[in-house]
Design brief:
140 residues; mainly alpha; 54% helix; 11% strand; globular
């Protein structure tokens, strides 16, 4: 499935909720579906700077594509990272680096996050794109 198709799917899923409390509940349910990160990657080395909560992100390559795993000690943040993984995982470095994550604005996520959570969201995206840069540089 293309990254745009996945983003459209996410937008559609969130469109059924009128109230942001319901959208937060949905994010919490998404957090429960996020596969556990390898405990070896739940260390300072994988911790994202700039997040109010603790967020760990790891990435691996397979067949020229990047796959992410992550965890957080905050359930809403964990739900947000699960959305990012859904859109960005299984893509090439070039796809990740050129990706416009328009679903974030379309579902009203950024507008409904506290400033510290919004900063955390940007930090998570930045880290995922930094992994893409690192893997791209390894290939060249």
């Amino acid at each position: 499935m293309t990254q745009d198709a996945i983003q459209e799917e996410i937008i559609e899923e969130f469109s059924i909720f009128d109230d942001w409390l319901d959208k937060y509940d949905y994010l919490i349910s998404l957090s429960e579906q996020l596969p556990a990160i390898d405990p070896a990657h739940r260390t300072e080395q994988y911790l994202i700077n700039g997040c109010q909560s603790r967020v760990w992100i790891d990435a691996r390559t397979e067949g020229g594509k990047i796959y992410f795993s992550a965890d957080s000690d905050a359930i809403i943040t964990k739900g947000i990272i699960s959305l990012l993984i859904r859109v960005m995982s299984g893509r090439t470095a070039e796809e990740i680096l050129s990706m416009e994550l328009y679903f974030i604005e379309a579902i009203g996520l950024e507008a409904n996050l506290s400033p510290t959570r919004a900063n955390g969201l940007l930090a998570m995206i930045k880290q995922m794109k930094l992994y893409a840069v690192a893997f791209q540089n390894k290939q060249n």
